[in-house]
Amino acid sequence: MQAISLGRVTVGAAGTPVTFASLITAAQRAAIPPSGLVARIEVWPDTSSTGKVFVKCQPPGYAAPVILAALPVPVGGYPIPWSTDGDSSRNAIPYGQFSLDVATGGDGAYVTLWVN
Fold first, then answer.
1. What percent of the chain has pLDDT over 70?
2. pTM listed for this prediction
């Protein structure tokens, strides 16, 4: 698998999700299959965050994003990560439907997409 690091995703204002698709560079886009599907998504809260970090997904037909995970504030410098489940041996996850939101503006998390 190949890792595509989006780096630290900072959400400027709480309640204003940042989509993963909006962060992809041209070089990173070239590493993602034309289908727009990836094998795995990992989100690691930044240890300097002061509020919860929310991983959201907005499938087609949904009016608003659905919260998949509410990652707690890292305690003692130990972040609790979130990742997609399932068979990571194939590209089956539409990363363009995912976004990151925060409870406290300016917080964020580290996001990595994995591609086969």
1. 99
2. 0.91
